[in-house]
Amino acid sequence: MTEPVTAPPRRRRPRGGTLTRYTTAFRTPKGIAAAILLLGLVAVALLAPVLAPGGYDEQTRSALASPSGSHWLGTDEFGRDILVRTIYGLRTDLSLILTAVPVSLVIGTLLGLSGYVSAWFGSLMQRVLDIILGFPGLILGIMIVLIVGAGWTALFTAIVIAGLPGFGRLARGGLLTEQQREYVLAARVLGVKKSTVMIRHILPNVVDPLLVQASIFMVVAIFIEASLSIVGLGIRPPEPSLGAMLNVGARYISELPSYVLGPGLVLLLLALAFTLLSDALNQAATRR
Amino acid sequence: MTLHNEQADPAVSERADTSVLLDVRRLRTQFDTADGVVRAVNDVTFAVRPGQILGIVGESGSGKSVTARSILRMVRPPGRITGGEVHYRGRDLLTLSDKEMRELRGREIAMVFQDPQSALNPVMKVGDQIAEALIVHGVDKKKARERARELLGQVGIPDVDRRLDDYPHQFSGGMRQRVVIAVALASSPSLLIADEPTTALDVTIQAQILRLLGRLRDELGIAVIMITHDMGVVAEMCDEVVVMYGGRVMERAPVEVIFQHPQLPYTADLLAAMPRIDEHSTGRRLPSIPGAPPDPARLPTGCPFHPRCRLRESICEREVPALVPRSEPVHLAACHVTQRGVEIPPLIPPAATADVRGGGESRQLLEITDLRVDVAADRRGLFRRHQPVYAVDGVSLAVSSGETLGLVGESGCGKSTLARTIVGINRPAAGTIRVGEHVVGSAAGAGAKVLRETVQYVFQDPYASLNPRRTIRQSLEEALAVRGVAPADRGAEAVTLLERVGLHERHLDRYPYAFSGGQRQRVGIARALAARPKLLVLDEPVSALDVSIQAQIINLLESLRDEFHLGYLFIAHDLSVVRHLSDRVVVMYLGSFVEMGDAEAVYHTPQHPYTAALLASSPIPDTAERTRERIVLGGDLPSPRNPPSGCRFRTRCPIGPLAHPDRTICIEEPPALAPTSTGQLAACHFAGELARVGAVT
């Protein structure tokens, strides 16, 4: 009777290691498009000093010049090249969201998982997140700017805080379901250390929706930057950001449509890249 | 394979008579998936007569549910019906338009699904749901409601006028299944297809539903197609049986013939491999079928059963056997070997590894005294008064090494809560748990380490208890690391463990998804053994497995117990499995024990009416047992939130105040577990009164 039971292993999509699962996300058409788009934008942003060695505030004689061979998108009200400023603006935005969103992800996840250490602390943190969630995004941003003062740091803080409820709640939901899973109970019955249970059994199973949420929130973060900059509370001139350029460019929309077109298009591409990325990740994470 | 399909099937030409209600011929359904074509239903032929109950039995993946859905043309893409005919009263359903088919569904052929939970719309009153089934077929509202009332009464729901306006969540599982049946009956269909209608229900509730289905057939003359995996249900209910395996009909015969002279090795072995509730088999191994049911995506060539068949010959690997008549023309079987008149030799059980049972001194491993568990403890709120819900309410038991204590009870009786409290997942509200010399405190303290070195837990669901992201090696080595095995030795130790539970070294680096249910349960057992426990708490370890796999796991558990002199607390709702494995048995009802004693005494002379009813409700896979006397309990398990006063069983007791109004003692005074004349303990004021009726020999 102890003879081996050899049902042939069912061929399904690998469900194993987290890393291999995410590499499959980049084999789908959506994933490939997202990767190309994102890598292209990051490369352009990184190469900004090479592409435009003069920096973002190099001025020319003619202000608000129409697009031409030397200035593809024309020049702004101070005679600065709009394309160059757009590239530097992209650099600002990427530096902002690629740091702020991961920080928000980590802090939010920790807050969400805090209930594992102490149940009442976990509930308390959820209430704190509820309060944050209760503020409309823009009002929250304005309050932070008033406290921190306008600039990169204020935008960074605003994005981090705005992201916390999303990450925190997802992590908490994951924790609550995972804690009741039989393999988690099995590990507890075996006497596996609490921290090991968290890292080995709970976290890997919670991380999927969090990563998807992170890529969705990247898009939101771009718009937080843009909306705060549009009301003049974002990046301070002369430093360019996509949102700040849109803000100023909107005044000249009839004279020089390319002023908003450039940063607008880049913003759109950025949002598209992250949306595609989140879609691809979501598919990789949920197909089981 | 094609060769045989082209030949004239005598089964098809034989039945052209008009008394046939549903005639399924050469039905084929397949699923086009990314992994290839899955032939779920392959050349299925059978017929149903008016008023007949036809059973379709098979294990998971045998194609029985897809067959039912194909008849109603309810196969969803990527599934599609690729061939065959389904004649209903002479009309081929497969050629009807969608509109004609919609009219036929419900009006002529209705379906009852397995899970009454999801078959009803939770936001609609049940009366409206029944009426809806009529209104879509053109009955006016007032009449429909009147009919809904009548139907609810017909399916045995008490207090119909009030319950008509209740929502599904206000009904218990068994009552909900009655409502589902009422919906199906709404426009008086002639054929009812019931897909595992009692699988999600407890034995006492199952007995109620089976009785109801039988009554409907007798009173209304409805034909029923009963899809099930349970040979016991088949033996009790069906007139004719179709045995499916690997998407094919392998045998078809009247129910008595199937049980007495199976002509298919699979059917014969399956019947032999089931432990019997009416048979004393403790200490013997069960005969078992090796291997696991085939994956429908990769069926073997030739006869689908040949890799597991002990009579296989070379022809079985090449050619699909045809379904041909046997000694009696009503008996058809598809087997190359028995076709030549070869008798199926009885399936020999493996010999017990050694007669070590009883050897070795017996030490008490676990002792529980007056344990209470409050399952509402973690829902304690800041602003409301805590209302305790004692899922386990004052139980005491002891388990010694080398012995098996069987714990039986219906779902919701608290048996899993008890088990989980023993291993420290839930916390006791009162009472003590003593493991060896140590008392396990309510606070995780000194006792906890001893506890997990002594007691380990095997979960019911082998799919849920292994982390899908970790290989078997990782899962086993984690358990070994906790025991303190040096990293260098873990690999070798893991291999030893796997081999002990009947798996191979090559399985080590696979993920759980690559295993079948039985194999996963083996891994779960290996993981529990990694801690070198002395006592295993087994929470329904075989109930999620296919029948042909159950015997393998039961045998494994028995040989492990005898080899390592383990003590088992074996929890199950299946009384026959418990009888086979257990030395002593405890029967649990609504949080407390109602009967406890030697397995033979409890099964032979049950003293508590609940035990007697449980025994009488369990279907026995033998048509000769059809005539035995039944005790069908009314009602449902009350909520532990609000248990009845006095004896907790009195609201359903066939000898309590319901039947004898003068027995007020049952309402006033809870009975204690007290010794009875037959030697076991029973908690009943009138112990022994029902014993004779419920006893199985």
Structure, described:
The complex is a heterodimer of chains A (288) and B (697). With 288 residues, chain A is an all-alpha fold. The longest helix of chain A has 37 residues, at 194-230. Chain A starts with 17 loop residues before the first helix and ends with a helix. Chain A has one domain: Orthogonal Bundle (MetI-like fold), CATH 1.10.3720.10. In chain A, helix 4 (82-113) packs parallel to helix 11 and helix 6 (137-148) crosses helix 7. Chain A is built from eleven helices and no strands. Helix content of chain A is 70%, strand content 0%. Chain B is of the alpha/beta class. Chain B has four domains: 1-108 and 190-278 and 286-349, P-loop containing nucleotide triphosphate hydrolases (Rossmann fold, 3-Layer(aba) Sandwich); 116-188, no CATH class; 364-538 and 558-565, Rossmann fold; 592-694, no CATH class. Chain B contains 26 helices and 24 strands. In chain B, the strands form four sheets. An eight-stranded mixed β-sheet of chain B has the order 6-7-8-3-9-10-12-11, with helices on both faces. In chain B, strand 16 and strand 17 (438-440) form a beta hairpin. In chain B, helix 6 packs across helix 7 (141-154), helix 7 (141-154) crosses helix 9 and helix 19 packs across helix 20. Residues 1-16 of chain B have low confidence and may be disordered. The chains are: A mainly alpha (288), B alpha/beta (697). The interface between A and B is large, with 34 and 53 residues.
The count of helical stretches of chain A stands at 11
Largest sheet of chain A: none
Pairing-aware structural class of the strands and helices of chain B?
alpha/beta
* Largest sheet strand order of chain B: 6-7-8-3-9-10-12-11
Number of structurally distinct domains of chain B: 4
Kindly state the number of beta strands of chain B. 24
Q: Indicate the radius of gyration of chain A in whole angstroms.
A: 23 Å
State the largest interface: A-B, 34 and 53 residues
From the structure provided, what is the oligomeric state, counting identical versus distinct chains?
heterodimer
CATH overall fold name of the largest domain in chain B? Rossmann fold
**CATH H-level superfamily of chain A:** MetI-like
User: In this structure, how is the largest beta sheet of chain B organized?
Assistant: 8 strands, mixed
Helix content of chain B: 25-40%
Q: Round the mean pLDDT of chain A to the nearest integer and report it.
A: 82
Q: Which fold name is given in CATH as the topology of chain A?
A: MetI-like fold
Shape of chain B from CA axes?
globular
Q: Gap between N and C termini of chain B, in Å?
A: 47 Å
- The rounded distance between the terminal residues' Cα atoms of chain A is 32 Å
Beta fraction of chain B: 15-25%
